[in-house]
Design a protein that fits this description.
Layout: E1 14-17, E2 21-24, E3 35-39, H1 51-72, E4 76-81, E5 96-101, H2 112-116
Length: about 130
């Protein structure tokens, strides 16, 4: 395995944790309040999580939402996994993005599906 920045995390970034996963946050200039939930063990993608890690992620996500609701009072959320380079994954350690969204944002009401559904993204199969 090559160097993985999520396998050696800064303790100051840990906001919540349980037996299997962490919720990490870094100061953000744009995505205020956003963070990631990562397994403590190195897993390359969400598809590599164990059942225990999957359940622990879901459990921690509820705690994270309560914290973000109380701290930032967002109007919505984007929650998602990117898988492999083509899917937008830049760090090959599974991580669930938790992004609070606010109605004052320039792209409010436009989630990731808006961008993916643009005609120029259409996959063309060569037969």
């Amino acid at each position: 395995m090559n160097y993985c920045p999520l396998c050696k995390i800064n303790e100051d970034e840990i906001i919540f944790e349980n037996e299997y996963v962490y919720f990490l946050q870094q100061e953000q200039e744009v995505l205020i309040g956003s963070g990631i939930i990562i397994p403590k063990a190195h897993r390359e993608t969400v598809f590599d999580l164990t059942r225990e890690e999957w359940n622990a992620t879901f459990s921690l996500l509820k705690d994270v939402k309560n914290h973000l609701d109380n701290t930032y009072k967002p109007d919505g959320y984007n929650i998602g996994w990117n898988v492999r380079k083509i899917g937008g994954q830049e760090i090959m350690h599974a991580h669930l993005h938790v992004i609070p969204r606010f109605k004052e944002e320039p792209f409010a009401n436009r989630g990731i599906r808006y961008w993916l559904k643009q005609k120029e993204n259409k996959h063309r199969i060569n037969k």
